[in-house]
Every structure is written in structure tokens, then in C-alpha cells.
Write a structure and sequence with these properties.
alpha/beta, seven-stranded mixed beta sheet, 14 helices, binds zinc ion
């Protein structure tokens, strides 16, 4: 029988890469499919794995199935191509459009990082090299092939798949894979990342359809566990958010929101528009400071079929966010710097979401020392990042080599997450038509994965295991 090997996102939340080989563990020459091909991010110990060759040569992999356009799922594709992969990368057309901005940006950032280390001459690698550059990232896009949600795709006589909605981000999907080997048929379900369930009050501002596909069948389930040991607050964050913005404006301050340029920024823009139109917050200028955010808005409008009824209603009534009065999109760095001149209350959304780089740095360097201002975090802040330092209540933070005192009010909301929490995951798993033979948990820190394993075993009576990095498991 076939096997699965976990080449990433096992023991950590990044680097998603799961290999399916239609031969048994000792066999050679099977058809090989990689489900996701993400980059390792975060601690150095994991990032260094981006530089190690795969245990299987890239040119022996026949195809990639991509669940969605987050870098920890797609960011290693250009490197795979660089190492000799020449097969198709199957993804939804919305994921392909998003990869078209995310991967070149990733190549560009890696070139910049390598140049920075070379300038400081403090790299262990002399000279420091990018994992891939902008041109290589753009080149990898030609291998992408669109597969629509629900469309069956036969990859070889033994293996076929279709995408079903995951409701995580625009274009996100799960991969339902059918294997036929030795006269036996097996269903494999790779969840990718799983979006939140259908509750628009506790998970508001959804841009894409809420709730993953229900009524699944699987012999083997490979499931994410990012929030395996955490729960989202179950109160609507919007009244508190509106009050924070109103109070900041009343004292003459501005609001700064660090947010990833793709998806999170768009989601937040729609929430602000709704709050503004319903009179819950004043009509202050809103600056979305990122060239990527502009391109991402265009992709959202192109794929309106994925939008929630609330988002469709806002688009129908008010048109494109790029045209909303009082909403400004900064493309050039000169436009970005001009936002610093805004002395009246305004709202600035900029990236990176964890303040590890990008234009948000100069906005925070300017606005953090003033107690009239407010900084609102709407995304996860990984330990050690500048975002986590600011969020922790630290009195100061280092930005561009300078110590910046933190006097602004700091607030954080956890409800804007794009990941289902354990009660939501259980709600979804209870819709399954059968009990999978084995469930392997991936894409979680060890404590999160093991707690979710225990919860699923207790609540559902399923056979659940936490996947280990490089572990091979037979599909039987
Ligand atoms: Zn994701």
C-alpha cells in the first residue's frame, strides 16, 4: 500500500509538506504527490530546514497540490522548482492569483535580507544567498494549474483528487484524495488550514464563506492543530473595537493596526466600513499602507463568488474598497511617508503583521511615544517578534536601531483568527460520515497537537496520532 511522509509542519506550525507515495515504504518508483510546499518560519532551528534538500529528490516528485496561498504552505514552491521539480502545481484560481503577489514578494524580501547580511558581513554563509530570488519566484508561477472547487482531477491511474472548501482564506481548500492500489480504494483528506465555523457574531468580518465542507468521509485524515490548546473568546469584538477607536479619536489620537497585507487587511477594512456606515465609529481617514494590499483587494473583487453575503452586500452598496471615500491606499514609499504628516486622528493599517519588518515600523516609531494614540493587534504575535514585545506591555521597543518609548494605549483582539478552535473543530468533525481509520495531527506546536489529540480521543473516540517530522505512515 501507499504511504505518507511528513516533510514539514510536524512538531511546528510552518513548513507544511506532506508527501504521498503510491508505493509501499520499501517500494521505488511510485507516483509522488506533495500536498503543500510551505516554508519553515520562526525559530532558526526550523528555518534552517529550508536549506536542507528534501529526503526525495525534487525532480522525482510528480505533482504538488496546494491547499492555500499562505507562505507556510506555498513559500517553498520556488525552491522546489529551483531544485528540479517540473510538474504541475494544482491550486484554486484564487490561490493562484494570491500566490502571484505573495511568492514574488517573498523572493524580493529574501534578496533584501541576503543583501542586508552581506552588507553587515555577519552571515555564516559567505556571501549570504536568498533561498530564491524575485525572478525565480515569478518563474515558478508558470507551473501552476487551476482546479476549481469540486472538480475531480485524475493525476495517475492510482490517484485522483478534488478540492473542497476550507473557509480559511480566499481560495483555501482541503484536498480530498482517492487512492486505488492493489484493488483497494482509500480516501485521504488533507485539511490544510481550517477556517472558523458559521457564527458571524463571534467570528465577524469574514470575507470568505464561513465554515469548512461538512459531511466528509476519510480513511486517513491529516489535520491541522494550530489552535489545539486555545479557544477564541466567544464575544463579538466589534463593540469593544468601536469604543477603542471612538475614545482614541476623542482624545485627538490615531489608531495603528499592524496586519498582514493579504486577507487580514481586507477583512479589517470591511469591518471598519461597516462600523463607519452604521455610525459606530467616526468618519476618520483610513490609510491602508501596502502595495500588496491594493493588489489583494483587486483579487478579492475578482473572486466575489467566495465572499460572504455580508461582504457582497458591502461591495454591492459601496463598490470597491479602492474607491471608498476617506479610504486611502498608499502604494509608493513617498505616499507611505506622507501619512506621517497626518496630524489629525486617522487609522493606519500596515504590515508586517508581527512588526518584524515593513512600513508598519515607521508608523509605530512615530506614533508609539504619544499616549493619545492606540495600537490594536488583530493577529497572532509570535514570541520574540517586535509585535509580541509591544503587546506584552513593555515600556520600550527597538525600531530601526532606536529605542522607542511605548506610551500609546495597546489593545489586542483574538477573534479575527482564520483558524477554527477546538470546539469548532469538534463541531466540524462530528459532521463526518465515518470515523477515519487514523487521524494524523500536523501544523501545531507540540503542546497544541497533543492536547487536541487527547480532546479528540476523549470526545469522539477516534484513533488520533501526532505526526512526527520525517515519519512515514502506511495508508491501509
Ligand atoms: Zn493558512
Amino acid at each position: 500500500m501507499a504511504y505518507i511522509q511528513f516533510l514539514g509542519a510536524a512538531g511546528t506550525v510552518t513548513g507544511s509538506k506532506h508527501l504521498i507515495n503510491t508505493c509501499d515504504v520499501n517500494g521505488k518508483g511510485g507516483f509522488q504527490v506533495l500536498v503543500d510546499c510551505g516554508m519553515f518560519q520562526g525559530p532558526k532551528e526550523w528555518r534552517e530546514r529550508n536549506w536542507q534538500p528534501l529526503p526525495v529528490p525534487a525532480n522525482t516528485i510528480d505533482a504538488v497540490i496546494l491547499t492555500h496561498a499562505h507562505l507556510d504552505h506555498c513559500g517553498w514552491i520556488p525552491r522546489l522548482v529551483k531544485e528540479g521539480f517540473r510538474g504541475p502545481v494544482y491550486a484554486t484560481s484564487a490561490s493562484i492569483d494570491l500566490c502571484g503577489i505573495i511568492l514574488p514578494d517573498s523572493g524580493h524580501l529574501q534578496e533584501e535580507d541576503a543583501a542586508f547580511y552581506n552588507k553587515r558581513k555577519n552571515s555564516k554563509h559567505n556571501p549570504a544567498l536568498p533561498l530564491y530570488n524575485l525572478e525565480e519566484a515569478e518563474d515558478s508561477l508558470k507551473y501552476f494549474q487551476a482546479v476549481q472547487i469540486g472538480e475531480f482531477k485524475q493525476l495517475s491511474p492510482e490517484i485522483s483528487f478534488r478540492f473542497v472548501p476550507a473557509a480559511h482564506i480566499l481560495g483555501s481548500s482541503m484536498a480530498e484524495i482517492t487512492l486505488k492500489t492493489n484493488g483497494q480504494m482509500r480516501q485521504l483528506l488533507f485539511t490544510g488550514d481550517i477556517g472558523r465555523m458559521r457564527n458571524t457574531t463571534v467570528a465577524p468580518g469574514r470575507v470568505v464563506h464561513a465554515g469548512p465542507q461538512e459531511g466528509e468521509t476519510a480513511d486517513v485524515l491529516v489535520m491541522e492543530s494550530t489552535y489545539g490548546n486555545r479557544q477564541h473568546p466567544d464575544i463579538d469584538p466589534r463593540p469593544e473595537l468601536a469604543e477603542l477607536i471612538r475614545k482614541t479619536v476623542q482624545r485627538g489620537g490615531s489608531v495603528v493596526v499592524p496586519a498582514f497585507a493579504v486577507e487580514r487587511t481586507q477583512k479589517f477594512l470591511f469591518i471598519l466600513k461597516d462600523l463607519m456606515e452604521s455610525g459606530q465609529i467616526p468618519r476618520i481617514p483610513v490609510f491602508a499602507d501596502s502595495p500588496m494590499a491594493i493588489k489583494a483587494v483587486q483579487i478579492f473583487l475578482k473572486h466575489e463568488e467566495e465572499c460572504t453575503p455580508d461582504t457582497c452586500r458591502l461591495i454591492k452598496q459601496f463598490g470597491s474598497p479602492l474607491q471608498w471615500p476617506g479610504f486611502f491606499f498608499a502604494s509608493t514609499s513617498a505616499e507611505s511617508k506622507r501619512i506621517n504628516d497626518s496630524r489629525y486622528p486617522c487609522l493606519i493599517i500596515s504590515s508586517s503583521g508581527m512588526v518584524t519588518g515593513g512600513r508598519i515600523q515607521h508608523h509605530l516609531a512615530q506614533r508609539l511615544p504619544d499616549p493619545r494614540n492606540t495600537v490594536i493587534f488583530i493577529g497572532f504575535q509570535a514570541p520574540g517578534t517586535r509585535g509580541a514585545i509591544i503587546k506584552s506591555g513593555a515600556p520600550e521597543v527597538k525600531i530601526f536601531g532606536d529605542i522607542v518609548p511605548i506610551r500609546a494605549q495597546i489593545a489586542a483582539f483574538e477573534q479575527f483568527s482564520d483558524h477554527a478552535d477546538p470546539p469548532e473543530l469538534l463541531q466540524w468533525l462530528r459532521t463526518f460520515k465515518n470515523k477515519p481509520g487514523t487521524t494524523y495531527l500536523v501544523h501545531g506546536e507540540p503542546a497544541a497537537s497533543s492536547q487536541l489529540r487527547d480532546t479528540m480521543t476523549k470526545e469522539l473516540g477516534w484513533n488520533v496520532q501526532v505526526a512526527q517530522w520525517l515519519q512515514k505512515v502506511e495508508v491501509n
